[in-house]
Amino acid sequence: MLYRSDALSSLTPAGVEELAASPIGVIVDFRTEQERHSAPDVHPDSRP
Q: Which of 47, 40, 48 is nearest to 22 (CA)?
């Protein structure tokens, strides 16, 4: 199963908790290095 997100860079603390409790195991960021640098993802420590 695949989930697509708009922007993990704007994830709220509640969103981080929901993501941590979800079955999602891998996060893949297809943005460029510059895009990742200007708006880094926010995610739980359990999802590197």
A: 47
